[in-house]
């Protein structure tokens, strides 16, 4: 399988007023064309930072990211992102169809833009909502509009940051199945960040498990479930239950590894402080000796 996305030796350190903070230690992985890969990791481990670096919004401190062979420098043209907070990602003053057309306004003429938007709204089951405004729709429908907008753009890579975390459980299941359907029908390459272990196994061809901050890859797990998934029978299957347990176990391994690494860093920082204090004391004594001789 050709790699659509390649992340190599990625690291990122934020420089803040109260000092440097390393959000990502060392991440390397690839996503093949047409694959759906889920990323799970403990809260605050660096998942959003990872998506921000892939989408070119921040430049990583270390390592390389390539999208179909081209190094990412700035926001790539052929990438779309769906965020958790649909209410802030849609424009309330534009109708549904105009929201979906919006990212295409510079690249396509009016007729083609409209055709793409109408088609994408059909994919997500919103053919009858064109002329409505986002605030007239339920949360799940608004997130469908956000997905339609991303799909209308026909991105090489679709990034999703906790896309279904703000909707109720039933809508979440519907949106998960919608994502699987459009991904199969349109051969889209997708990287999904999620907190939900079950969701990662249900959606993914692979699950990348990250350690606590600073993130590194604890495991890259292949999901060997039949491609055709079903919210009841798949989740009940022995394979699903075993995989879900394995992801949970690996998350704990990652937490423990992260805690050990954090303790080691704290010990190293303490040792460096003591060494510094000792050097200062030696210099002081030497200076006193020089002054008295
Ligand atoms: N702009 C910033 N400046 C300094 N530190 C930051 C900045 N953005 C994030 N961080 C820190 O980097 C670490 C990773 O943050 P990030 O948002 O990437 O994690 P996350 O895994 O997406 O979190 P969550 O699961 O809670 O959404 C956190 O400790 C966070 O406080």
UniProtKB/TrEMBL annotation:
Domain ABC transporter: 5-237
InterPro entries the record matches: AAA+_ATPase (IPR003593), ABC_transporter-like_ATP-bd (IPR003439), ABC_transporter-like_CS (IPR017871), ABC_transporter_ATP-bind (IPR050166), P-loop_NTPase (IPR027417)
GO molecular function annotation: ATP binding; ATP hydrolysis activity
Entry superkingdom: Bacteria
Record-linked SUPFAM superfamilies: P-loop containing nucleoside triphosphate hydrolases (SSF52540)
Keyword terms: ATP-binding, Nucleotide-binding, Transport
CDD domains: ABC_NrtD_SsuB_transporters
A Pfam entry, by short name: ABC_tran
UniProt keyword Nucleotide-binding, yes or no: yes
Protein name (database record): ABC transporter ATP-binding protein
Record organism: Saccharothrix syringae (Nocardiopsis syringae)
Lineage: Bacteria, Bacillati, Actinomycetota, Actinomycetes, Pseudonocardiales
């Amino acid at each position: 399988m050709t790699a659509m996305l390649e992340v190599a030796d990625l690291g990122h350190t934020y420089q803040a007023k109260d000092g440097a903070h390393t959000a990502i230690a060392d991440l390397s992985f690839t996503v093949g064309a047409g694959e759906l890969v889920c990323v799970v990791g403990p809260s605050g481990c660096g998942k959003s930072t990872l998506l921000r670096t892939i989408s070119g919004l921040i430049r990583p401190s270390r390592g390389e990211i390539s999208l179909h062979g081209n190094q990412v420098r700035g926001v790539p043209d052929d990438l779309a992102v769906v965020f958790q907070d649909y209410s802030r990602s849609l424009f309330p003053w534009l109708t549904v169809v105009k929201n979906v057309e919006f990212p295409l306004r510079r690249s396509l003429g009016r007729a083609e833009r409209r055709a793409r938007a109408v088609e994408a709204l059909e994919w997500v089951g919103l053919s009858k909502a064109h002329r409505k405004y986002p605030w007239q729709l339920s949360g799940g429908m608004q997130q469908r509009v956000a997905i339609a907008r991303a799909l209308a753009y026909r991105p090489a890579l679709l990034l999703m940051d906790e896309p279904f975390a703000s909707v109720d459980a039933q809508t979440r299941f519907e949106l998960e199945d919608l994502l699987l359907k459009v991904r199969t029908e349109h051969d889209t390459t997708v990287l999904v960040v999620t907190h939900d272990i079950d969701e990662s196994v249900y959606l993914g061809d692979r699950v990348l498990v990250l350690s606590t901050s600073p993130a590194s890859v604890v495991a890259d797990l292949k999901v060997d479930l039949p491609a055709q998934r079903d919210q009841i029978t798949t989740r009940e299957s022995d394979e699903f239950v075993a995989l879900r347990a394995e992801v949970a176990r690996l998350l704990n391994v990652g937490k423990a590894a992260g805690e050990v690494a954090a303790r080691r860093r704290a010990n190293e920082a303490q040792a460096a402080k003591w060494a510094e204090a000792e050097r200062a004391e030696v210099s002081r004594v030497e200076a006193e000796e020089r002054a008295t001789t």
